[in-house]
Amino acid sequence: MKKILNKYFTVSLEKESNDTTKLIEKIKEERWVDSSTIIVNCSPDYSSRLCQEINHKLSYLNSNELYEQISLEMPYPTTNQIYDPYSHGYQLFDRYLGQWITNNIINNCKYLFINSSTLRGKNFNKVRLSVRQHLEPDNYRFASLYVQSSSIFQPHYYVEEFDKEKQGGLLFHWENIDNPNWDY
User: Is the pTM of this model over 0.85?
Assistant: First the structure.
């Protein structure tokens, strides 16, 4: 059954593009990103384009070289597991996250965790709680285009807050509105 579009905070291609530029400006403004920064593509199925654009537009801060970029799978809101491409199977997110941190976090690097949106904030909050056991607070930041006003987590950088009760759930122009794993 098709869901009704007017119940959504819908993000068009033009809005996404304009807001990506705004997010890049907010990140640049703080002057936190430097050559030791690693970009973490959280939820690659939702955030890859955003991460790639941020990486290219900020590369001038890294002698015009792209930053190292790594992926961090995140579960859908209706699940607590992810498909782990390294083990070729499903894993509970907590276990996967612990292994991911062991394999990817380096003490002398900075990490910019990017997700296209922060809805409930539970995934970003878990990442923050886990990462802070391994890194100093100034060595990681979080960024999203959009933040749901009821989220338990607020990223360091974001463009717009939206109210799900008033505006509806977030819907990007490229999303499959009939995806059963997403609870709009």
Answer: yes
